[in-house]
Amino acid sequence: MYSALWRVLPGNLWVKIAILTAAAAVVITVLMVFVFPLVDTAITVREVTVNQ
Amino acid sequence: MFKPAVLSRLMGIVGELLITFGAIVLLFLAWQLWINNAVVAGQQKTASQELVQEWSTDKDKSATAPTSEDFGPAPAFAGVGEGAKFATIYIPRLGADSTRVVKNSVDLTTVLNNGYFGHYPDTQWPGQPGNFAVAVHRTNWGSPFGDAPKLQVGDKIYVETVDGYYTYAFRNYEFVLPTAVDVLLPVPGTNEAPGDQSILTITTCNPLLGDAERMIVYSVLESWQPRSAGPPVEMAKTQKVES
Description:
heterodimer; A: mainly alpha; 2 helices; 0% strand; B: alpha+beta; Sortase, Chain: A; eight-stranded mixed beta barrel
């Protein structure tokens, strides 16, 4: 999968590294800003209140 | 059914997907334990400063009351609608950056998960005889109350509202089951009338990183000073006022 991605990327070694770094930054930002808060709300419910 | 070459390529893709998923899980843990923690703590700092700014009047910027001055019994806070911000809580023992905003609701996703203290709407207000009860996260979500077990008897807990400053003194801990709603009574644990005593009750989770029990932190209202007298000396240190 990743080796195929590496082959289809244009440019020389440094261009490929630059593209992948930028893509990783975008993916990580999207995860942290949009995905993780939703996952957190869904799976980490830690109650701190008393109720019946 | 598959040729070995196809099978090994398929397994390679599956393996790469699993490694990617593992990396995302680790990233999520880092986000939950540190990154979101720092982000929420920062938001709380800004929110509390904005609130104090909103309340401040020109004349109280320089004033700091002599600590000996007695302003008599605290007036009861008038109350706010459900979900509104109405106070800040500062606990010097938990660090100079421990100031958090209090909202009138104990909703998990909109209030507590954003690092706020949540006031139980059915309990009393600061200064009112009875029980000013709030809930707060202990770790994560800004870790507003992580060092709570470091509190020592008599430690000050400052509550600021638009009216002024309420100084509570830490009294004791109690560890209860999540169903122990009697900690929210005007006199926690009993059906007695509160007289003129005001209690601050903070409920949080126990054990650390779990919620099988609740840790309850009780404090007693010690003194009060109006906004015109300026903040208590210890609180003033955390509020930088532009001259």
